[in-house]
Amino acid sequence: MAFVSITNMLTKAKREKYAVAQFNINGLLWIQAILECAEQLKSPIILAVSDRMVEYLGGFECIHNMVLSIHKKLNITIPVALHLDHGMSVEHCLQAIDAGFSSVMFDGSHSEIAENIKNTQIVSNYAKQKGVSVEAEVGTVGGNEDGLIGGVKYADFDECLRLVSETKIDALAAALGSVHGKYNSSGPNLGFKEMERLNNSLKIPLVLHGASGIPEPQLKKCIQFGHAKINFNTELVTVWANSVRNTLQSNPEICEPRLIMLPAKEALEQKIKTIINIMGSSNRA
Ligand code: 13P
């Protein structure tokens, strides 16, 4: 299988105190840029598709086949996970697994904990038979992600322990103040005390959602407190959009897509490399 689960990748990262970046993909350009940069830096990497983007990108099989064929074309040798981000239903998670995704997140964080656990168990039992890893969420990451808008709700400590002990998940996204999209002018207010307590009580790695806009020293602190998977989307779409805007504004006659997209790909690559270096995952493949 070309893609690996996040289990070994994250266990090693947590033990050696670095993190693996999850980058959300928004089209072909992202897949090429992420795989090329990770390969150059010899870093393990997680390519993720937010559930709300699946149809836009052609469906699970199309996404899987697209990533697979670019993976082959580029002769990728580093560990790559293909992950469903914020799977909104059990059915979607199972469909992603059947299509060849090597990792899924079941996001039952909007349900009561008993319901969240029950559904996570169904996903986890199915995933384990296929060697696929599972991430689950407790609490709510705030902000706006691909149209889903929500306020921050801190993960409850006991609910986190319960979910982890009653399911066989590989990584836990415990919402502790981060938000998807842009932070307001006062910046992130992360619950480091809660993070430390959780990390001391859990063996599995933590996942940080909403990492775009979190200053580097705080990201490093999150890694120290057990976060081995850190998710980025907004920082990438922002540099992409700025580049496209600049190219169009400074060349009003331009219409060849390749000439508009190549500078945007370079902008993505610069950002991806900067983030991988902050994660400390270079030369860990
Ligand atoms: P950002 O919006 O901060 O990039 O977060 C992305 C994310 O957490 C995807 O799950």
TrEMBL record:
UniProt superkingdom: Bacteria
GO function terms (MF aspect): fructose-bisphosphate aldolase activity; zinc ion binding
Cofactor: record remark: Binds 2 Zn(2+) ions per subunit. One is catalytic and the other provides a structural contribution.
One of the GO BP terms on file: glycolytic process
CDD domains referenced in this protein's UniProt entry, alphabetically: TBP_aldolase_IIB
Pfam families given in the database record: F_bP_aldolase
Cofactor(s) required, per the database record: Zn(2+)
Chain segments annotated as transmembrane: none
Keywords, alphabetical: Lyase, Metal-binding, Zinc
Residues the entry annotates as binding Zn(2+) 2: D107, E137
Signal peptide: none
Binding site for dihydroxyacetone phosphate: G181, G210, A211, S212, N231, F232, N233, T234
Annotated binding of Zn(2+) 1, by residue: H86, H180, H209
Active site: D85
UniProt cross-references to PANTHER family, sorted A to Z: D-TAGATOSE-1,6-BISPHOSPHATE ALDOLASE (PTHR30304), D-TAGATOSE-1,6-BISPHOSPHATE ALDOLASE SUBUNIT GATY-RELATED (PTHR30304:SF0)
Name this protein carries in UniProt: Fructose-1,6-bisphosphate aldolase, class II
Record organism: Gilliamella apicola
